[in-house]
Amino acid sequence: MTKSASGSNNDDIIELGLPVNPAYVSAARLTASSIANRMGFNIEDIEDIKAAVSEACTYLIKQNSQNRQSMFQIKFILKNKFLEIFISAKKDPSSTDSDEDGLGILMIEALMDDVDLTTPDDTSIQIIMHKKLR
Amino acid sequence: MTKSASGSNNDDIIELGLPVNPAYVSAARLTASSIANRMGFNIEDIEDIKAAVSEACTYLIKQNSQNRQSMFQIKFILKNKFLEIFISAKKDPSSTDSDEDGLGILMIEALMDDVDLTTPDDTSIQIIMHKKLR
Amino acid sequence: MDFKLNSLYDNTKNIWNITIEGEIDIYNSSLLKEKLNALIQEHKTDLHINCDKLEYIDSTGLGSLVSVLKKVKQYNGNISLCQLKPNVAKVFKITELNKVFVIEGANND
Amino acid sequence: MDFKLNSLYDNTKNIWNITIEGEIDIYNSSLLKEKLNALIQEHKTDLHINCDKLEYIDSTGLGSLVSVLKKVKQYNGNISLCQLKPNVAKVFKITELNKVFVIEGANND
Ligand SMILES: Nc1ncnc2c1ncn2[C@@H]1O[C@H](COP(=O)(O)OP(=O)(O)O)[C@@H](O)[C@H]1O
Ligand SMILES: Nc1ncnc2c1ncn2[C@@H]1O[C@H](COP(=O)(O)OP(=O)(O)O)[C@@H](O)[C@H]1O
Predict the structure, then answer these.
(1) Residues enclosing ligand 1, CB less than 6 A?
(2) Does C10 fall in a domain?
(3) For the purposes of burial, counting CB atoms within 10 Å of the CB of D48, is it exposed (0-12), middle (13-18) or buried (19 or more)?
């Protein structure tokens, strides 16, 4: 679906809430891939978006090992020329990055056009990423 | 993933919000299929759940033809022995079922173990469906 | 997640040989109807549809097929479908459309 | 959405021929490590991994492979991967792990 096919000038928004649990990362990945497909991204970009969403979820799971009851919030926003994705979850107050976690973030940076990791407050982390429609 | 693999006694809940737009029905279908897979359903049951979610979205789109800005809310709840799915959206006050819409509901009834169509109020419709884990 | 339709007119048998690949749902089922209607405008013959690579069809896709079948019946033609995947065969069965279309040979891969 | 690993020990060449199918992520990457470690306990040889049907691998899956490679290097062995799909080849490239593993032949289907 191209922007004009949606028949609207507003941004399309898709929201997904998932348990912070390794079992559901594949669901996040598949949903991301399906949305990117509909938004008209090419195959390589769809794979990039899929992998970036997966790595972001994995990163957040590692920062939140003590609390499997909490939820990811994933929000996909189709802007005029790019897809914006927000992924957030609670973090353990004590968590710190290990080397391996850095690999995931490095991959997201290579796969997406823009990535931002923020801690809105001491108890949560948000990853924001952009991918341009080409 | 079986219930015990989630490492918790609480129900796992997945929530998906999508624009009420035919372009996103495939995303709902794919997400449902991925979740059902993780919950340990067999291939035939996964296909049934996928088709039932798709038909429910399609039914709601047809009841909501005037308002493409509104959202579907889809909620998947893994209970002990079954998957419960809630799908709701706004409806047009004027909408009535056509014969063809009835086909979709008939299909959901054949595919799932239990289906309930409710109108919590005059402006929205909710479809609730169950599928037992075998 | 879209569908692809290939068609080849068989001169000697006077039939349309058609393959449909992918997924048909409310997003693209009207396109399916248009494409099939265009074929029967060109040659008023039977339609043989190979569904080997049809991964999914929903109630609106079935509606499109029924709509085309009505037109095909007008010239005493028929629509047959073969190589249906189990999930596709199932929707024809539960809607009893397996009694309306000619369904040949399953695909159990 | 899980993965399947098949392995066959080649007696004459003294190598493990392995195929991995499916998707590897944080849910199952520790299982990948366990399965490969079991193989090199049995025969301390090179691992040849065919990735023809590997649809996806994430950072934790790469971490598992690196962990196994460290053990393989201890006996002067190696791990080679062939027939990588474009998206899988890409994650090896962006992490520069294509310089650490032997990557042979692409899969551009
Ligand atoms: N944590 C979040 N989760 C989901 N959506 C968010 C989050 N933060 C911001 N957004 C959404 O992103 C959009 C832009 O956010 P914002 O950062 O305020 O934009 P800008 O910096 O462009 O003003 C808004 O529609 C908002 O709802
Ligand atoms: N419209 C809805 N959308 C999403 N979830 C819902 C909706 N209605 C009920 N639920 C959820 O379903 C669960 C059970 O709902 P309810 O109908 O109150 O259960 P019961 O009839 O078993 O008491 C609750 O967790 C509730 O959050």
Answers:
(1) A 73, 75, 86, 88, 126
(2) yes
(3) buried
